[in-house]
Structures are given as C-alpha cells and as structure tokens.
## 1
Amino acid sequence: QVQLVESGGGLVQAGGSLRLSCAASGRTFSSSSRMGWFRQAPGKEREFVASIRWSDTTAYADSVKGRFTISRDSAKNTVYLQMNSLKPEDTAVYYCAGGNTWGYWGQGTQVTVSS
C-alpha cells in the first residue's frame, strides 16, 4: 500500500516562500511514474499545480510557472514543491499525488498566504 505524507504548509505573507515535502512509502516509483501537487481553494475544484516524473520531466500550471519549482530526491522517495513569490490566491489545501493515473493521494497540507 502506498502512503504519501505531506509536510511544510503554513501561514506566510504575500511575497514569501514555503517548501512543501511529500514522502512516499510502500513502493519505489519507476522512471515512468510521476508524482505531483494539486491544490484546492475553498469553494473551488481541485486543480493541478505541478508534476515530475522520475525521469525528471516536469510540468506546471500556468498560474505558478516561474514561481514554483518541483523537484525530487529519489534516495528519500520524496518530492518537493518550492513556492516563491506567493500570492493570496495561492491559498489552498495542497495535496501530493502519485502514479500515472494519480491513484495515490496524501492527506493535504494547508497553505495560507496573507495580503
């Protein structure tokens, strides 16, 4: 059974930075697998933020390009999301997800950006 555990959320002022971590346990992801981040703001649908394959191919939502960076540490089976220049509209619960069909999900971590 795969488990994804997020950490690193919190409260930050606009313009600040946070780094989210997602530790995967229970299996080793292959080079064709992917992990990523989604977010859900109050009253809105969950949306894609960023993804990375174990081959290091990355993808980003247009709203975060140039501000967020996804990376991985294969030795630790951990994926990170470095979030810079945060905006109030980035406020959401951030979820880690894994697998080619996003079949694995973490419990979420709250990110709040104050203006």
## 2
Amino acid sequence: QVQLVESGGGLVQTGGSLRLSCVTSGITMRFRTMDWYRQAPGKQRELVASISGDGLTNYAPPVKGRFTTSKDMAQSTVYLQMDSLKPEDTGVYYCNRRPPSTWGLGTQVTVSS
C-alpha cells in the first residue's frame, strides 16, 4: 500500500528558501518517477518537478532554476529544495509517484511579499 507523507512547509518571505520532504512507503523509487505538485487557492493542481528512477530531473518553467528535486532511496524520501521563493509559489505541495496513487495531505507553503 502506497503512503506519502509530505513535510517541511511553512511561512517565508519573498526570496527565502524551504526544503520539502516526502517520505514514501510502498514505492520502489528505483523504478518510479516521483513528481512534486502544488495547488494554489482556487486553482488546479499543477506539476512542478519530477525525478526519474535513474535520477533525471525536469522542472516546470515557473520554477526552473529555483527549485531542485532529489531523492534518497535508502531513506525512501524525495526532496524539493525551493530557493528564491515568490508569492506565486504559495500553495499546498504534494508528492506522488507516476502515475499518481493515493494522495498524501500535502504541506502548506506560504510566501509573503
């Protein structure tokens, strides 16, 4: 059974940084792409970053150059390092495997201007 637990969110000022963690269980990360999504208030959930089974990363244009995703397979954990944060990065951040399984609760990120 897949379980996903996101953490690390919080309130930061514009230009600040946060590091999100996603502890997984029931996923063989060596063979799965792991995705990070975010959902801003009143908007649809959007994909922001991905890391493949062999470590290749991809980023959505709004976060490219500012966000970095990585993983520790021994810890079954995926990370999202977010730098140079902007108010438009505000939202609830989720991780999931590809294709998506059961969603976790996410972690709230709020960037103040």
## 3
Amino acid sequence: QVQLVESGGGLVQPGGSLRLSCATSGSIFSIYAMGWYRQAPGKQREWVATISNGFTNSADSVKDRFTISRDNAANTMYLQMNSLKPEDTALYYCNAQTPGRGWWGQGTQVTVSS
C-alpha cells in the first residue's frame, strides 16, 4: 500500500507561483516513478511531469515553467509552478508507480485568476 497526500494548492494571480507537495507513506521502497497530473473542469486528466531515478520529464505546456523534484529523505515530491496562467487552473494529482499498479492522491486545487 502507498498513501499520497497533496498540499500547497490555492488561488493565485496570473504570473504568480505555487509549490505543490506530495507526502508519501507506506511501501515507499517499491515506488519506481512518481508524477503529477491535472484535471480541469470538463476535461480529461492530463500528465504534467514525471520523475524517476533522478530523471525528469514534463509536458510541453508546462516546460520551462514547472519543475518536478523529490526529497527522498522527506518522502516528499514537489512541483514548483512559476509564471502561472489561467489555463493551469485544475485539480492537481500526485501519482506513484509500483510494480503492477499506480497510486493516486486526492488532489489539490490550483486556481489561477485575477
């Protein structure tokens, strides 16, 4: 079992920044990749960024604005989001991959609006 708890969402003006956190507990040793996804109202959930064995990758829509990182000592993954745009408004989910299945958190809401 893996438990994921997101935090750090909120309301921010366009051009602002937020840092999301994903606290991980349970069978952490079995996690081989983690990532962030988001789902805007009326749209499908979409991939944002992934980190695995120190390597990172992110969607073109957030590249150069969002940075994914992981603190193994703190069992926490982060998503630093800069230069936020209204189209970044969504419920952001943390994901962890273990052999055979993926795990999801409950999500944290990010709203970008003036």
## 4
Amino acid sequence: QVQLVESGGGLVQPGGSLRLSCLASGFTFSTYGMRWYRQAPGKERELVAQITSSGGATIYAASVKGRFTISRDNDKNTVYLQMNTLKPEDTAVYYCAALGMAYWGKGTPVTVST
C-alpha cells in the first residue's frame, strides 16, 4: 500500500534551518511528481512546493520562494524540503504528497519560535 513518512521537523529559532524528508513506498516513486504542503493551526492546508518526477522543474509558494528548496532522490524514494531563514509564520505541520494520489502521511511538525 502507499505510504508516505515525513520526518525532520522540530523546534528551531527564527532564522534557522531544517531539512524535511519524505520516504515513499508502495508506488513507482520515480514516475510521480511530488509536493510538500503545510497546515498551520486554524488554517487550511496550503501547497508549499512541487517537483516533477525527474526533478527537473520546481515551483514554490510566494511565501517561501528563495528560502525553501525542494529536491528528490529517486534511488532512495525520498523527497526533501530544505528550509532556510525560517520565520514564525512557517510554523505548521508539513506533509508530502504524490501528484494525483489521495494519500497523506502523518506529517512532521515544525515550530519556529524563540
């Protein structure tokens, strides 16, 4: 069955960095575009970043462009989100998803605070 397991979240001070990982299984990872989403308390889930199946193209939400980088390793069935210059408004639970699939992992929480 399809599984998406996010990891790498935690508590970080403003201006700090984190690298999130999402290990995928149960489908042919290398043929699917992948996305990172986030959901802050009391808010709707929003798209953060997307990467094509080959990793050749990416898109970002305006709020994270220039600070976050999405990448993937198809040999490891893993998609990453490098988050730099973190702000308190980046606090949320972060989820990965495969394009066209209605599966979600449990997410990994990120808290940006002093």
